[in-house]
Amino acid sequence: MHRDIKPENFFIDHNGHIVLGDFGLSHTPKPKKKFEKAPTYGLCGTSSYLAPEMLNDALLSRHGYKYKVDIFSLGVTFVEVLGRLSEPLYCAMDQNQQRAVMNDLGVDIVKKFIKDPDQLDLVLKMIDEDPNRRPDTQEIMKHAFFKDIDWEMVYNHQYQRESILFESYQIGLSTQSMMVDEYTHPRFRQNSIGMQSNP
Q1: Distance between CA 71 and CA 171 in Å, rounded?
Q2: Which of 9, 60, 104, 172 has the least CB density, counted as fewest CB within 10 Å?
Q3: In terms of Cα–Cα distance, which of 50, 64, 131, 45 is closest to 97?
Q4: Per-residue DSSP letters for 82-123?
Q5: 147-160, pLDDT tens digit by residue?
Q6: How far apart are CA 46 and CA 6, in angstroms?
Q7: Closest Cα to residue 82, out of 107, 51, 116, 49?
């Protein structure tokens, strides 16, 4: 259980492949405990990406939470990436503020940012308030959004990338050319994040 999934904890290795890092808050179940059924209780992670079951003090102290908190955090990350948001969906400074923001916005707000039906179906399932209704990793991998992905190729780092030069991109207050690595697989290209070019 990672417990701190967010965009800042995804890195690109020297071959251009995305990897998840920073396992400082991760939790490993005790020996002979099934990963899917092993709860833990400590509140940790980053506000804006915490799962609802971590924000309910009564449920947290009584029942704890399981690995589906990572599914929620990854779902919120997907919304931020696929919706091209400039800040987290449930942007908050602490867990109390996040709880209030989530209660105010709900999940239907996602439809404002994501129009692709496969993307929308996937993220809505991943950020479901009820962890029992969230998909597990196998169900995510089999989702229609990933229908063109060969997971064996992903595992073996066989997808290739190409470098494309984009001219005159606005970065802060400076305008400059930049090199962007983009996977050649069409699903990655279709959903890649880009900055808006200057007119």
Answers
A1: 31
A2: 172
A3: 50
A4: HTT-SS-TT--SSHHHHHHHHHHHTTTTHHHH---HHHHHHH
A5: 999 999 999 988 88
A6: 8
A7: 116
- 112 phi and psi angles, rounded to 5 deg: -75, -30
Mean confidence (pLDDT) of the chain: 82
When comparing pLDDT for 199 and 38, which is higher? 38
Tokens standing for residue 71: 């599914």
Q: What pLDDT digit, counting tens, does each position of 114-138 carry?
A: 999 999 999 999 999 999 999 999 9
d(CA 38, CA 102): 26
The first and second tokens of residue 66, run together, are 């399981």
- Asked if residue 12 lies in contact with residue 18, where contact means CB atoms within 8 angstroms, the answer is yes
70 is a catalytic site residue: no
The CATH class that applies to domain 7-156 reads mainly alpha
